[in-house]
Design goal:
76 residues, mainly beta, 4-stranded antiparallel beta sheet, 1 helix, 4 strands, 43% strand, globular
Length: 76
């Protein structure tokens, strides 16, 4: 699997500056740029956030570094 084409899907819930990130699935980029999403659970609230996959050994000490404010969140 080409890791450049793999994405991780999170649901972000919470209010104010208290946010909770829960991994709910993965997505794969197709040849035409569209996404196939495979969800492990179906969120009923919050925002879906799709980020590039980063292998554990490439992320550094904490997973929080992977969750910067640079990506665009997709409203549910």
């Amino acid at each position: 699997m080409d890791q450049a084409k793999m994405k991780v899907i999170y649901v972000i819930t919470g209010k104010g500056n208290r946010k909770f990130w829960n991994k709910v699935g993965v997505a794969f980029v197709n040849h035409d740029g569209s996404l196939n999403c495979k969800l492990d659970s179906l969120p009923v609230d919050g925002e879906l956030h799709i980020r590039d996959y980063v292998a554990r050994e490439d992320r550094g000490d904490t997973a929080r570094e992977d969750r910067g404010d640079t990506a665009t969140a997709l409203a549910g």
